[in-house]
Design brief:
single chain; alpha+beta; Peptide Deformylase; binds nickel (II) ion
Length: about 170
């Protein structure tokens, strides 16, 4: 089932999401729906707060499904051992139509649980590292806009305001 994606400046995008302690039937359904929604939106990643559930769950696919669907689920993710930096263009399904170059760590370690609540640990680089940082930010109420230099952030916020006034956002 395709879920509605919450857009900036919705309040839920600013909340710290709750830890997941068990996979209830509702969460199982949510994971399946988030995968459907991610591919429908042609996104690289989707965090549960973006579909209205303030829990520490994210789904990503580093090719956005362009090389066949290979969704990965991360629950209660913790990032560590960040190193290097890469500047690349970034956008967000919750900030539709707005893009900016954004500086991120080039490499990191992620510890999380998979959808069977088994611990997983991996070193991520490049695109996967970028998506993990972007989506983990969502679980902490942080948007990519917050990671931009203030002049870029202000430009995007003004642009969104104008789009809202014109009924185009
Ligand atoms: Ni996003």
């Amino acid at each position: 089932m395709i879920l509605e994606i919450v857009t900036y400046p919705a309040e839920i995008l600013r909340k710290r999401a709750e830890q997941v302690t068990e996979i209830t039937p509702e969460i199982k359904k949510l994971i399946a729906d988030m995968k459907d929604t991610l591919y429908e939106a042609k996104g690289y990643g989707l965090a549960a707060p973006q579909v209205g559930s303030s829990i520490q769950l994210l789904v990503l696919d580093e090719t956005a499904g362009k090389e066949g669907q290979r969704p990965q689920v991360f629950i209660n993710p913790v990032l560590s051992d960040e190193e290097g930096e890469i500047v690349a263009e970034e956008g967000c399904l919750s900030v539709p139509g707005e893009y900016s170059t954004c500086k991120r760590f080039a490499k990191l370690t992620v510890n999380a649980l998979n959808e069977r609540l088994e611990p997983i640990s991996m070193v991520a680089e490049g695109q996967l590292a970028r998506i993990l940082q972007h989506e983990t930010d969502h679980l902490n109420g942080v948007l990519f806009l917050d990671r931009l230099p203030s002049f870029k952030r202000d430009t995007i916020k003004k642009h969104i305001k104008r789009r809202i006034q014109q009924g185009e956002y």
